[in-house]
Design goal:
Elements: H1 5-16, E1 19-20, E2 30-31, E3 34-35, H2 36-41, H3 53-66, H4 70-74, H5 78-91, H6 93-106, H7 125-138, H8 142-164, H9 169-179
Antiparallel strand pairs: 1-2, 2-3
Helix pairs in contact: 1-3, 5-6, 5-8, 6-8, 8-9
């Protein structure tokens, strides 16, 4: 079943929960999964403990879906877009975009299916064209392989950042339990 952006946002808010200010979290005060820094960038000036859910929904739809063209990915592979949406929220949109680009480069049979693309994290015309060509060659089953590849990159990144900053061990189990394979 293909999920709408509203369903994806509701799921993220459900996973993220209400207000949090965990001492080991470099993101600082957070509500509905939106950090204070992001809320401020969108013009919110109040206390994060009362940051409105509606504002979080607006931010998620704009910053983590349409502005980064994950909505266009969804027209080709909706589950891949859902994974990128969640990854973009948790790791950064450019990281999520880079995971897709890197996966497409690795899955293109030595650039015989479509040209290799620059892995810059920015989803543009080349990324969408590569994704469309990948689907044309690999079919619907290709989405599963693409998701597994992206999930592998995600686990590797969580491990790297946790090994580099041991305080992240407080979050590692939850990241793997709640962030990997969400589009399955």
């Amino acid at each position: 079943m293909t999920k709408t952006i509203d369903q994806l946002v509701d799921e993220v808010i459900g996973r993220e929960g209400d207000y949090s200010n965990h001492p080991a979290d470099k993101g600082g005060p957070t509500r509905w999964g939106v950090t204070e820094q992001v809320a401020r960038a969108f013009g919110y000036k109040g206390d994060m403990q009362v940051f409105p859910r509606e504002s979080a929904v607006t931010i998620y739809k704009r910053r983590y879906w349409t502005d980064v063209r994950f909505d266009q990915v969804a027209t080709v592979f909706p589950r891949v877009a859902a994974e990128m949406f969640d990854t973009g929220i948790n790791m950064g949109q450019a990281i999520a975009g880079g995971f897709l680009q890197r996966a497409l480069n690795l899955l293109n049979a030595g650039a015989t299916l479509y040209p290799d693309m620059l892995v810059d994290g920015q989803i543009g015309a080349m990324s969408i064209a590569g994704l469309q060509s990948y689907k044309q060659r690999r079919g619907v089953a290709g989405e599963e392989v693409l998701l597994k590849t992206i999930d592998g990159f995600q686990v590797g990144r969580y491990a790297d950042i946790t090994e580099a900053r041991p305080a992240n061990e407080a979050f590692f189990y939850g990241w793997i339990a709640n962030r990997i394979g969400i589009a399955a």
